[in-house]
Amino acid sequence: MAPPRRKNIFRLAPPPPATIYVRRGYNRVLAEEFAALKVKRAALVEDKMEAHSQGDLRENFGFKAAKDAIRAVDRKMDELDRFSRRNTFIEVDPTSWLTKPTDFLQLGHVARIEKEDVGTKRKHRFTFLVATYGETATDPDSGIECLPHNSPLAAVLLGLPVGKPSSVNLPAGPAILTVLSIRNPTPVELDRLLTAIKPPDIEEGSV
Prior knowledge:
Layout: H1 6-9, E1 19-23, H2 26-52, H3 61-86, E2 88-92, E3 110-117, E4 123-131, E5 145-148, H4 152-157, E6 166-170, E7 173-183, H5 187-193
Helix pairs in contact: 2-3
């Protein structure tokens, strides 16, 4: 049996499939991004062919630049394709958040949270809108910060009732979380906090 190729020996395993809640229209944005990358790649291939026709490739910087750019686009297309195929996306409409029940914390709630660090006993208070995938905006007027539902903090907060301290383990260490209050967001708050839907950021060389 042939040994594994060296470049794959230390590659991290891909994350397990996940169900990701996104705002309505996210799947369309993913498809549009992939289509735009295909158009960009086709143009780069033309640039590469044009540069190739200019002669000696050893000193043909235009040919090398086009070749490198094609590889970068290919990496982005591969990563975007894996991202969309690996996960399941459930689109939700933010207007439905305005009628959610408020007996325990759910996606779409505005929540006041108290976090007590077990080691230092320091307490911190935050106001979050538990939002869909990728939302990170902050409203400077109200101080409300978007907390993506798939973040480590949201993962332990979702489902907690009001007023009951819960011991949790977070990346920063053990903590005690208390949901002080939950309510529905207002239309004005949603307008300020929810930014334009965009595809995931894909870093160069991530594939």
